[in-house]
Amino acid sequence: MKIVLLIVLQFFLVTGTIHAQSLDKLNRFIQTQPASAAATAFRDARDLIKEGEWDRAEGRFNRFIAEFPQDREVSAALYWLAFALKQQNKFPASDAALTKLIEQYPASPWIDDARAMRVEIAPRLNNQQVIDQGVGETNEEIRLAALQSLFESRPERALALAADLLKPGNGTSRLMKESAITLLADSESKEAVPILAAVARNETDVRIRKKAIEALGDIDDASALEPLKALALQTTDLSIARAALNAAADHEGAARSLLLEVARSNAPLDLRVEAIERLGSEEDPAIVDDLLKLLASATHPRLQEAVIEALGDLELPRAQTALTTIARTSASVEARLMAIEALSDREGESAIQSLIQLYDSEKDERVKESILEAFGDSEEKAALRKLMDIARRDSSLKLRKRAISKIGDSDDPEATKFLEELLKKGPQQ
């Protein structure tokens, strides 16, 4: 039964609602009890908790306690009565039920859970003494409830306590550290940044480090970007660097400069590629110029590909113009082919018209074939009609055959009519 409440408490700290797992455990407990009048009454009250009927649950648990004062589940009834009262913001009455449980049933398996709930609701009652007592507890769940309460009542002290819990080598469990980090992130405090940054740099548990990095992304303050930048550029652990990039992306606007810096740096190739790819989600038209500068300086094919893909991801007219220019003028055939592929992935007739112009001005048959494939993959009517034009007039027999093959893949009635007419005209056509 105590395991149930540990789960319940942890969920209370995050949402203030009952965790389904705790109710399942309670359900199994009730099902093992004899079908006595007391057990039936307790089950009825329990069902109201499950259904969120707090007012009715309050009444049923009060009746159970009054009718069965000697039943062994009175302490459990007091706990769930307190919970139902808390859900209705009846904090003095909830505290009274918990105090009765603690004082009259010291051997109850619900005792630690009751003490934890008292700490949880203490800020609503301005009961600093209960919070201070909770801070000194050895029970982690009670200490965690106290830390949450401190963030509500005395945030400066909560920050200091969280920093102490998160120091390396102090024996704090992973659950406590993760919960402390969550509370720091939820505080949205600038003062939480150096604490989280220290964890992100120094913690030996990679999972805890990543959680601290994620928390830095949740704090809407420019100071959180500095440690993320250092982690992205200086760490030798690629997974940590990636986590820093992810977190930086949560800082809208400010993240762009960091992504560009990583893309231009001597960081590992995979990380630079990832930074460039993330630039493709920016909405500022100026990012097109940044990407073109990156392309001009990129020597590795993967970096070039990443830049062109990022341009393809940008839903901006300037990005389409840039891709068209690359496809027409780049000295690298591979870059031209990648630009054509990116253009082919864009929706709308505008991209098809750009590809048609490219096809008409192109001399390299390999590039023309790539454009032809893009026509075949498009659902735009203009693409189908260009294929028909190629099939009729192109000087390359290979491209004419390929165009006919692509037309044959189309379900458009116009394509079927074209092929029928082509057959009627005979092989000379």
Architecture overview:
The chain is mostly helical and 429 residues long. It is 75% helix and 0% strand. The chain contains 26 helices and no strands. Helix 22 runs antiparallel to helix 23. Mean pLDDT is 87; it is low at 1-22.
Write the layout of secondary structure elements.
Elements: H1 2-15, H2 20-31, H3 37-50, H4 54-67, H5 74-87, H6 91-104, H7 111-121, H8 128-135, H9 140-153, H10 155-165, H11 174-187, H12 192-202, H13 206-218, H14 225-234, H15 238-249, H16 254-264, H17 269-279, H18 287-297, H19 301-313, H20 317-329, H21 333-344, H22 349-361, H23 365-377, H24 381-393, H25 397-408, H26 413-425
Helix pairs in contact: 1-2, 1-7, 1-9, 2-3, 3-4, 4-5, 5-6, 5-7, 6-7, 7-9, 8-9, 9-10, 9-11, 10-11, 11-13, 12-13, 13-15, 14-15, 14-16, 15-17, 16-17, 17-19, 18-19, 19-21, 20-21, 20-22, 21-23, 22-23, 22-24, 23-24, 23-25, 24-25
What are the segments in which pLDDT stays under 50 over at least 5 consecutive residues?
1-22
Give the DSSP E fraction (strand runs of 2 or more residues). Answer: under 5%
If you compute it from the alpha carbons, what radius of gyration comes out, rounded to the nearest whole angstrom?
33 Å
Largest sheet: none
> How many individual β-strands?
0
Count of DSSP-assigned helices: 26
Class based on secondary structure composition and strand pairing = mainly alpha
Distance between the termini: 85 Å
Residues in helix, %: over 70%
Overall mean pLDDT stands at: 87
3D shape = elongated
SSE arrangement, N to C: HHHHHHHHHHHHHHHHHHHHHHHHHH
Features:
mainly alpha, elongated, 429 residues, single chain
